[in-house]
Write a structure and sequence with these properties.
single chain; 304 residues; alpha/beta; Metallo-beta-lactamase, Chain A; five-stranded mixed sheet; binds zinc ion
Length: 304
């Protein structure tokens, strides 16, 4: 078995060439250059944070009457100014799940919709103090300078009002409808939004083209669960594997729907115990696949 220093954050990540999807001259958002804004097929925009290891992506969509913001990113730049520079319509904000990198900008908005889950509700209302998020602020996790006025030592996630939603809830922006799906596994409160007319699934962290985390556990009820994640991925592959586009929460905004079938097969291969892996000093295993990876904690998976 090969060993690696860190199954989650490979050495040299910051020296990698800029991601090809951004084009040759990516445009920083005028209102807050920490972000880049990229147009999406079928309308909408990806709001990307390339300067931090997480490379998190939030999404903005407009209908005739309203706009919808899917996630609020790291909370390092002024997301609200970026959004207000893109739409003047009344805004609905939705969190894909309550991990820090998707609710960092929540404080800039009056309320967010998120899963009707007790631990998610607590975290969204209370936020996360500096000690809980300090591990994400080390200088080696930044690939560009942070914005003027931002102090990593004071970084924290502030709470905001939580409006609970469940599978079946739909957001009608006027000519554009997003249906809510429950997608537990990466976290128990993970949601997705489905735009049936345009055949687009907003996947949050359940699928993106990088290392998928099945191992997270911050001890406050929002832990990953490999077997639940596996079941969700099988459901997604069966019911949504033929969608045109996945809009993903990290690294690259747009992926083909066929990736869901590949991800489901990846979970099956890992669960079967036949897939090669590398292991890091913490005992976390990293399994490589075509364009993505799985990180798993064998102590939490029976039979691995
Ligand atoms: Zn994330």
């Amino acid at each position: 078995m090969e060993t690696i220093a860190d199954a989650v954050r490979p050495a040299g990540w910051a020296e990698a060439p800029p991601r090809a999807w951004r084009g040759t001259s990516p445009r920083a958002a005028a209102a807050s250059p920490w972000f880049e804004v990229h147009p999406l097929p079928c309308g909408g925009r990806a709001i990307y944070e390339p300067g931090h290891f997480q490379e998190v992506i939030s999404f903005l969509f407009e209908g005739r009457d309203r706009a919808l913001l899917w996630d609020t990113g790291l909370g390092i730049g002024d997301l609200r100014a970026v959004v207000e520079g893109l739409t003047a319509k009344p805004l609905t904000v939705v969190n894909s799940h309550a991990h820090f990198d998707h609710l960092g900008g929540n404080r800039q908005f009056a309320a967010v919709h998120a899963a009707d889950h007790p631990a998610a509700r607590t975290r969204i209302l209370r936020g996360l103090g500096p000690a809980a998020v300090a591990e994400h602020m080390s200088p080696d996790q930044f690939s560009r300078p942070w914005p003027p006025g931002f102090d990593p030592a004071k970084y924290q996630i502030h709470g905001t009002e939580h409006i609970p939603i469940r599978e079946g809830h739909s957001f009608d922006l006027g000519g554009r409808i997003f249906e809510t799906l429950a997608a537990p596994g990466h976290s128990p409160d993970s949601l997705m939004l489905f735009d049936r007319e345009n055949s687009i699934l907003l996947t949050g962290d359940t699928f993106y083209p990088a290392a998928l985390y099945t191992h997270l556990d911050s001890g406050d009820g929002l832990a990953s669960d490999f077997q639940v994640y596996r079941a969700t991925m099988n459901r997604l592959a069966r019911d949504y594997g033929r969608v045109r586009f996945l809009y993903c929460g990290h690294n690259e905004p747009v992926q083909p729907g066929a990736k869901l079938g590949q991800a489901a097969a990846a979970f099956e291969a890992v669960a079967a115990g036949t897939r090669p892996f590398r292991e890091d000093a913490r005992g976390l295993r990293r399994y490589e696949f075509d364009g993505f990876a799985l990180v798993a904690d064998p102590a939490k998976i029976k039979g691995l």
